Backbone:
């Protein structure tokens, strides 16, 4: 019989999943769905009636939540698909340095270390006040929107 010492548990994951399973027929307009490996927001769902093969089909029209690319998918309503787990965090922009590093304050009032994002022109942002920065975390991808 194998002992505990025979197994390597040093590289386990936390167990948190990036997607959750859901039946296709349960996903509604405004919900989230994974289409072709991309997290999308559902714009329209149409369900066909049961045909001679016995399955009602769901036709999804959705848009990628990061680049707004239109994607479509069709699957039986009783079959499983995946829904992305999305975490949204909002920060208030405190300062932008000359090197384009941002200082962000969370809801608790704590200012995080300066963060540098993609090469963008931050000059218009330096003139404004009360700017809200939203982080969307999906499938370990980060996207920034203002």
Residues:
């Amino acid at each position: 019989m194998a002992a505990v010492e025979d197994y390597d548990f040093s590289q386990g994951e936390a167990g948190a999943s990036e997607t959750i399973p859901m039946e296709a027929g349960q996903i509604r307009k405004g919900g989230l769905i994974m289409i072709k490996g991309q997290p999308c927001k559902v714009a329209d769902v149409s369900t066909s009636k049961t045909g001679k093969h016995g399955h009602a089909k769901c036709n999804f029209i959705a848009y990628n939540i990061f680049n707004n690319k239109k994607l479509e998918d069709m699957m039986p309503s009783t079959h499983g698909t995946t829904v992305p787990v999305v975490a949204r965090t909002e920060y208030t922009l405190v300062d932008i340095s000359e090197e384009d590093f941002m200082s962000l304050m969370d809801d608790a009032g704590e200012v995080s270390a300066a963060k540098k994002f993609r090469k963008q022109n931050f000059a218009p942002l330096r003139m404004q006040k009360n700017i809200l920065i939203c982080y969307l975390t999906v499938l370990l991808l980060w996207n920034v929107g203002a």
Remarks:
- The chain has a mean pLDDT of 78.
- Helices lie at 123-127.
- DSSP finds one helix and eleven strands in the chain.
